């Protein structure tokens, strides 16, 4: 049965015990693979951390992740990566290019202010079929975004997308690349 109100916390999003078991297994695997490795001891790369959401209870954690990345490298925009990677020269330094998928409203309300605080550019890919969806009017459609049909998510509207582009110079694009929609 879908949530009655939009998901605001990660705990509500995940909602079931098997999800936390999967997270625990994933975290153990990542920890095991990272033993003996440190980004502090490497150079000459671009990493692409990608996100889908920053819920109410994830804001502090997201800020900590950006602070951690800043300690070890520089943030780079998606527009600058082709030149850096396609120049034929070795990459000098360490770079992070942050991207977001899906188009959830919490990227504008939570992620963008934190990215601005950390002077980190971001690229945002939009699920255009859901942009501008209304929580009440589209109540039957919204839980279908996920296979399990349980999460009622609030999506950006077109003005949110325009504001993100104009006010913060973010790179925002629909999945199909048709930027005429903006």
Offer a quick outline of the entry.
The chain has 182 residues and is of the alpha/beta class. Helices cover 36% and strands 12% of the residues.
Kindly estimate the percentage of residues that lie in beta strands according to DSSP.
5-15%
Averaged pLDDT: 82
What count of structural domains? 1
Q: How many whole angstroms does the radius of gyration measure?
A: 18 Å
Low-pLDDT residue intervals, each spanning 5 or more residues: none
Q: Give the fraction of residues assigned to helices.
A: 25-40%
Q: Write the element-wise H/E pattern from the N-terminal end onward.
A: HHEEHEHEEHEHE
- Name the CATH superfamily assignment: Glycoside hydrolase/deacetylase
Strand neighbour order, sheet with most strands: 2-5-6-7
Query: What structural class results from the helix and strand content?
Result: alpha/beta
Number of helices: 6
User: What's the N-to-C terminus distance?
Assistant: 34 Å
In the CATH hierarchy, the third-tier topology is known as TIM Barrel
- Described by the principal axes of the CA atoms, the overall outline is globular
Counting DSSP E segments of at least 2 residues, the number of strands comes to 7
CATH A-level architecture: Alpha-Beta Barrel
